[in-house]
Amino acid sequence: MQEERQPMGSESLGTLLRSWRDGTFSEIWADWKWIWGYTKRYRRAVWFYTILGVASSTLGLVSAVASKYSIDIITGYDSDRLWFVITVMVASALVGLLLSSVTSRISTKISLRVNNDIQAEVFDRLLGADWKSLNDFASGDLLSRLSTDAGAVSSSAIRWLPDLVVSVYTFIATLAVILHYDWIMALLALASAPFLLLTSRRLIRGMRTHQQEVRQVGSRLMSYETETLHNLDAIKGFGITGRYGAGLRQRQEEFRRASLDYNLFSIRTEILMSVLGSAVQMAAFGYCLYLLWSGKILYGTMTLFLSQGTKLSSAFNALVRTVPSFLSASVSARRIRDLFALEPEPVLPDDGLDRQASRGFTVAAEGVSYGYAPRQLVLTRADFRAAPGETVALVGPSGGGKTTTIRLLLGLVRPQEGRAYLQAADGRQVEMNAGLRRYFSYVPQGNTLLSGTIADNLRMVKPDADDRQLREALEAACAWDFVSAMDGGLNASVGEHGHGLSEGQAQRIAIARALLRDAPVLLLDEATSALDVTTERTILRNLAARYPHKTCIVTTHRPTVISLCRRVYQVSGGRMELLDNDRAQRLAMDF
Ligand SMILES: Nc1ncnc2c1ncn2[C@@H]1O[C@H](COP(=O)(O)OP(=O)(O)OP(=O)(O)O)[C@@H](O)[C@H]1O
Questions:
Q1: By CB count within 10 A, which of 110, 269, 333, 451 is most buried?
Q2: In this structure, which residue's CA is closest to atom 10 in ligand 1?
Q3: CB neighbours (10 Å) of residue 290?
């Protein structure tokens, strides 16, 4: 069968388009579509910025033409129009200066605003993102995207299009001025264009690959620094700071190598452009001398050609230079889009549930199965129930699935089978979701205090709490004695992660914070693990006596806690088992 032949011209155009439409370019296209959509709200400012740029470029041209006339006037001894021409020259230069200063000020203002907006929006997305998808990112990587990538997008998003428009305009206007005086000269100025068109695809792809590599290695470096600083005590404790110093240097070396590779690629590209530009300029200069020698142009026109030739090549360079910033913005946009694409936590409607809050809530799971990885279930068809006024324990070996159960009850992760729900006193049931967390007070494992005063840490969950309420919560958590003895009392400062407090003191403040929130459900995940037995018992008794209607769920390895609980669930080997009284007592004795 004979293939249908396309006309020659459209076939080569088709091949060209196909070769441009490979993965790289469709990615760049998608990234820029996103940037374009994102910056819609700043469009008016961008146009204003563009108009200022075009005006300042026009004034530059006016000044150049005026200087041509002034030279022609002087060399021709025609002094009548000299003052007019000089006035135009000086005025256009001054107004041009003013415009470029205003443009710089405006662009800085807009790009700062865009940067803040992107950072704030990404930050909000991170806070509202689904727990599991957020867990795929290292904190250093997130920080790098928040700072470096947001900065690259914000500066390019605002400047790139105006810069492109101004460069294209300057290029065309300058070319038009030259064309007005001599078309061969204009043609010479364009001599490098076909070569650039042919090489552009390779250059663009190379540049994008290098930029992606530099960003990824930069992110890895930042993740390493963040994690090391986060775990400094452990690293020092093992006496392995030297190894971590070496680790940093190794990652720095990777970053240095990636950056230098990119730099080499840029230098090669620059050399290529400069050689090309110089060849074109020399040809133009030679042709200019020929025109002057043959008496076809005057000195003024020659000055105009030379100055505009330089301007043309710098406009052309500016045009070429928009490519790396265009690509850099697209690489950063992709990394930010990854964060925008994070699945948000679902919030389900729970009309009128607030009216039931004073009567407490039952927390329940029925036939729940869950695993972090496919075919590796941590829980299989688990049942669980904790009613208002009950303290229920989750026990089991380390890695058994206690914290995972808490995550399911908080709606941080969702069951792959079965359901976890909150049941109000009127019998209404609402599946666990982010919206229900207002009914929970949660004390997670580990130190969760933030830098600031003790009062700041407590008011984090109830900003309008007065000092009396803070004191009551601290008393219930057996923390008031040591807080009142601290210099500054409630206003004593603590560092990041409760630096300046003992582990047990930090735990007691975290419990006080949960109590201050006064939510119907209290979740304590190993929240008393660092306390002595007497203090632990006192706190649990305080809870039962002062908050008799709360639903309280604790995960623990301690017998002290088990003996105070209404029910005990053992989570182990993927199963959740409700222990009868005897087994619970035996378990408490076995510890
Ligand atoms: N973020 C996570 N991603 C993947 N797997 C996880 C994650 N968190 C926990 N797991 C896995 O789930 C299982 C249960 O962990 P979980 O933290 O629920 O145990 P636990 O009973 O609370 O342990 P511990 O008493 O040591 O706190 C473990 O095998 C663990 O490896």
A1: 333
A2: 372
A3: 12
Are the C-beta atoms of residues 399 and 574 closer than 8 Å to each other?
Answer: no
The residue to mutate among 376, 384, 403, 412, having the most atoms of ligand 1 within 8 angstroms of its beta carbon, is: 403
Distance (Å) from CA 58 to ligand 1 centroid: 66
By most ligand atoms within 8 Å of CB, the mutation choice from 376, 402, 406, 408 for ligand 1 is 402
Residues 332 and 397 both lie in one domain: no
User: Measured from the CA of 132, which atom of ligand 1 is nearest?
Assistant: 1
Pair 436, 476: CB distance under 8 Å: no
pLDDT per residue, tens digit, the chain (591 aa), is: 333 334 433 444 455 455 455 556 777 888 888 888 887 888 888 888 788 888 887 887 788 777 777 777 777 656 667 777 778 778 877 887 888 788 788 878 877 888 888 889 989 998 889 888 888 888 888 888 888 888 888 877 777 777 788 788 888 888 888 788 788 877 777 777 777 767 777 787 888 889 889 989 998 998 899 888 888 877 887 778 889 999 999 999 999 999 999 999 988 888 887 788 778 778 888 888 888 888 887 777 777 777 777 777 777 777 777 777 788 888 888 889 999 888 888 888 887 788 888 888 999 999 999 999 888 889 999 999 999 999 999 988 888 899 999 999 999 999 999 999 999 988 889 999 998 999 999 988 887 888 889 999 999 899 999 999 999 999 999 999 999 999 888 999 888 777 888 889 999 999 999 999 889 999 998 888 888 888 888 888 888 888 888 999 998 877 777 877 889 999 988 899 998 877 777 776 665
Ligand 1 probe mutation, 133, 369, 378, most atoms within 8 A of CB: 378
- What distance in angstroms lies between residue 412's CA and the mean position of ligand 1's atoms? 14
Ligand 1 centroid from CA 377, angstroms: 11
Q: Which CATH number goes with the domain that contains 125?
A: 1.20.1560.10
Q: Is residue 72 part of a domain?
A: no
412 and 268 within one domain: no
- Residue 388 and residue 305 share a domain: no
Q: Is residue 238 part of a domain?
A: yes
Examine residue 586 and state whether it is found in any structural domain, yes or no.
yes
Rounded Cα–Cα distance for residues 129 and 209 (Å): 29
Domain carrying residue 575: 356-590
Q: Tell me which residue has its CA closest to atom 2 in ligand 1.
A: 372
Instruction: Quote the number of domains for the chain.
Output: 2
The C-alpha atoms of residue 435 and residue 439 are separated, in whole angstroms, by 9
Q: Are residues 308 and 366 in the same domain?
A: no
Atom 28 (ligand 1) nearest CA: 399
What DSSP character marks residue 547? -
Ligand 1 pocket at CB < 6 A: 135, 372, 378, 396, 398-404
Question: Which of 403, 413, 416 is CA-nearest to residue 443?
Answer: 403
ipTM over 0.85: yes
Output DSSP code: residue 373.
B
For ligand 1, atom 26: residue with the closest CA:
398
Positive or negative CA dihedral for 497, 499, 501, 504? positive
Please answer whether residues 516 and 546 qualify as being in contact, where contact means their C-beta atoms are separated by less than 8 angstroms: no
Pocket test for ligand 1, best of 404, 524, 525 (most atoms within 8 A of CB): 404
Whether residue 324 is found in the same domain as residue 380: no
How far lies 484's CA from each of 238, 262, 470, 491, 531, in Å?
Answer: 35, 58, 12, 10, 19
Query: Looking at the domain assignment, is residue 77 inside a domain?
Result: no
Q: Are residues 303 and 383 in the same domain?
A: no
